[in-house]
């Protein structure tokens, strides 16, 4: 498998993976996002390794405790998705594997490749990379779900470029700012 840093995307016409070879006489490769069945990303990657096309599955390391011992697992950053640059013939092969739910033709391959390169660099330099369930905007009302501030509500605020939790004390008309991990909070619906 090629490194994500070594790829250069070509903008390709809007054909889908399932179209006939006659619609793509040169057999040009297309940038696709393969939506695969749950927990089959690594199987799909094994299948794709037989192809000459580029394929990429960003992974992160999760360490958990199981009966007093640490277990280290590599999990997909984007569960259910694999990125690929395939020709129609290679695409037909992976579709026959019964692992793919659907294919998504990437309308902006240059932007996707740029983002994948950023993720690969971040994973190399920061081994604690992990997926976020949701992102928060400044001013959103949130609830702290974990940690010593569990049950506290407040607003997301930017302080020196970092997201912090602003906790209001309404009766006093003042507030305090506390740094909280984005994984410890969830958005509250109004």
Describe the structure.
The protein is an alpha+beta fold. The chain has 2 domains: 4-125, Alpha-Beta Plaits (2-Layer Sandwich); 141-187, SH3 type barrels (Roll), CATH 2.30.30. It contains 3 helices and 11 strands, in the order E-H-E-E-E-E-H-E-H-E-E-E-E-E. The protein has helices at 41-48, 88-96, 109-125, and strands spanning 30-36, 54-56, 59-66, 69-76, 81-86, 100-105, 141-144, 153-159, 162-169, 174-178, 185-187. The strands form 3 sheets. Strands 10-9-8-7-11 form a 5-stranded antiparallel β-sheet, with no helix packed on it. The chain has a 4-stranded antiparallel β-sheet with strand order 2-5-1-6, with helices on one face. The protein has a two-stranded antiparallel ribbon with strand order 3-4. Strand 9 and strand 10 (174-178) form a beta hairpin.
List keywords for this structure.
2 domains, SH3 type barrels, 190 residues, alpha+beta, Alpha-Beta Plaits, four-stranded antiparallel sheet, five-stranded antiparallel sheet, single chain, elongated
Topology of this protein?
Blueprint: E1 30-36, H1 41-48, E2 54-56, E3 59-66, E4 69-76, E5 81-86, H2 88-96, E6 100-105, H3 109-125, E7 141-144, E8 153-159, E9 162-169, E10 174-178, E11 185-187
Antiparallel strand pairs: 1-5, 1-6, 2-5, 3-4, 7-8, 7-11, 8-9, 9-10
